[in-house]
Amino acid sequence: MKAYNLTHLKELEAEAIFILREVAAQFENPALLFSGGKDSIVVSHLARKAFFPAKLPFPLVHIDTGHNFPETISFRDSYIEKIGAELIVGSVQKSIDEGKATEEKGYSASRNALQTVTLLDTIEEYKFDACIGGARRDEEKARAKERFFSHRDEFGQWDPKNQRPELWNLFNGRKNYGENFRVFPISNWTEMDIWQYILMENIDLPSLYFAHERPVFMRDGVIMATCDYIPLKPEEKTQTMVVRFRTIGDMTCTGANLSTAASLEAIIEEVSASRVTERGTRSDDKRSESSMEDRKKAGYF
Amino acid sequence: MKKGYLDMELLRFTTAGSVDDGKSTLIGRLLYDSKSIFEDQYAAIEETSKRRGDENINLALLTDGLKAEREQGITIDVAYRYFATPKRKFIIADTPGHIQYTRNMVTGASTANVALVLVDARKGVLEQTHRHTFIASLLGIPHIVFCINKMDLVDYSEDRFYEIQEEVEAFASKLDVQDIRFIPISALKGDNVVTKSDNMPWYGGETLLYLLETIHIGSDHNHIDCRFPVQFVIRPHSDQYHDYRGYAGRIAGGIWKPGDEVMVLPSGFSSKIKSIDTFEGPQQEVFAPMSVTITLNDEIDISRGDMLVRANNQPSVGQDIDLMICWFTDKKLVANGKYAIRHTTNEARCIIKNILYKVDINSLHRIEDDKSIGMNDIARVSIRTTKPLFFDRYKRNRITGSVILIDEGTNETVAAGMIL
Known about the structure:
The structure holds 2 protein chains of 2 kinds.
Chain A (H helix, E strand, L loop, with lengths): L7 H19 L3 E4 L4 H14 L8 E5 L5 H14 L3 E5 H6 L16 H13 L3 E3 L16 E4 L27 E4 L7 H11 L10 E8 L2 E4 L13 E6 L10 E4 L5 H10 L17 H8 L3
Helix pairs in contact in A: 1-2, 6-7
Chain B lengths: L8 E8 L6 H11 L5 H14 L7 H4 L3 H6 L6 E6 L3 E7 L7 H8 L4 E7 L6 H12 L4 E7 L8 H15 L6 E6 L23 H7 L12 E3 L2 E3 L11 E5 L4 E2 L4 E5 L4 E9 L2 E2 L3 E2 L3 E6 L10 E3 L6 E12 L10 E6 L2 E14 L6 E2 L10 E14 L10 E5 L6 E7 L1
Parallel strand pairs in B: 1-3, 1-4, 4-5, 5-6
Antiparallel strand pairs in B: 2-3, 7-16, 8-9, 9-15, 10-14, 11-12, 11-16, 12-13, 12-15, 17-21, 17-23, 18-19, 18-22, 19-20, 19-21, 22-23
């Protein structure tokens, strides 16, 4: 007798596809937030599956800080071309030029927080009523409380204490005019699930995830890529190391890991042996204990 | 590659109990012993514990993600935690145990395969044990595991363990529960959590982790009654797929194959399955809970909210429905009030025709003289919907037997309902 069981990756996939279809059915003008990182690549892969043989029924939106790794941008452009999707770019530089956002100053200046301004403006400009994101609950403690369908008020804010209960697979996407939703189809995936799925599905990734030689410098115990966007302190020296990136944000807030893992199998081996979370190298989370919660309340990804 | 990772099953469980029962300690131990707590997470809670002057490292800080929760030392919301062993991946819906948070327990329980109910061996069965067991049975969780915790504080007494087991069994016999297990543990000392305890040689059963890794969950989905709620209609409008019309959805029950005769509700038209499509290619056999796209031989007008079924095994079709509901909001249920209702992919409006009784979830008594239904109350009601729904009893199918009610003014989800 045959067992009618799904493996856990297939069950997570079925759940994510259900959520993506629910977005297309419940909202008039959704968008998929695409950063060029592995999580948003997996979400867009799932979206291709959800609507096959039709194309994606929503555009990809990239909030570009202007400080991205060049590898991320070239991957983005070839990926968009390959899957035949529409791309909308929201530019943080433009928000700064228009005086809507103010550039941080100093050695650790980052445009990470400014992304929220550009994101909310882009949502308003295109009148998106649902933005699909690749956030996972295992990433960060504030995200562990996030819903699949996360309601945002007319200011784009998240109210964690007043979230709608989510039961079975009944999702309530009703909203008033001007409000919108963030939707997280891979909420239940862990970092390990993501890598295993990428291997199983043979999904292309930016080369940054694989070990390579790169000019880097050390700051606060974190290996940072040397680039035009980060001024070096006098005592900081550039050197060449073999590294890879475990997560990809923009160049000013993403640290590298010393690693020789050059294949998916080697990365999975490394992740399963790792004793530090992937966001351990993200300086944007380290600003305070509740920095993610504070940013999310304000409308961050 | 981590061995067997591609063959692992997914098990969702809820944990119920208050902080005093050692629930956080138990979760902390499962995460810690399965190496799912990372050094930077551990360092962060170690630092916070120190700053707050806690004597030991407070593992509850791991699950309490919101600022308000950390400040007040309570869990407000369902927190989801993940860990894996070589056999299974686990999703823990960790729900607060206080009475005012019934709604969170209901939420966490709605998708769980297993409920862990913690009982303090010193205190024995309390009102909240009744409450947790009742909610687990109401939400149809197939397996309930009673963890009799703090056995170290009752000298690992066999008599005490069986005394509590008898008390639980007496209570549970009044409920509709399929499978009950009992394990004597000490979350703090680690007895029978991951490794077998030397302190309780009289216990011949499994450890908690072994139970979670092996408990049979293959029958938790309905593979008998064919139910396919249409979620979205896929029409590519491309040259290659010019006339393609696929019905996308997640299978809610049954096993489906190309060539099967199907009936469409509500129209009643019949057709045959032409193909079952996925990105990977056409499938020969699919089942719950897969997400697929079905095409039919005949052109029939089908849209979201319709359901494909078998002519010889149809769900109930009707507008008058009896429900057990759990109420989620401060604003009380309005008798004769109108609400939006969601059921599978269908949406309608409904009126609360009758409130039959409220349940005292501690004693299980029916309260018929007080029909005011407020936050966290559980009640039996009958409703009438504006259009027919296609449903099964919740006990038969958790997907086609569940609904939510939505306040049309605030858009809030105000109740969860299980069809009787």
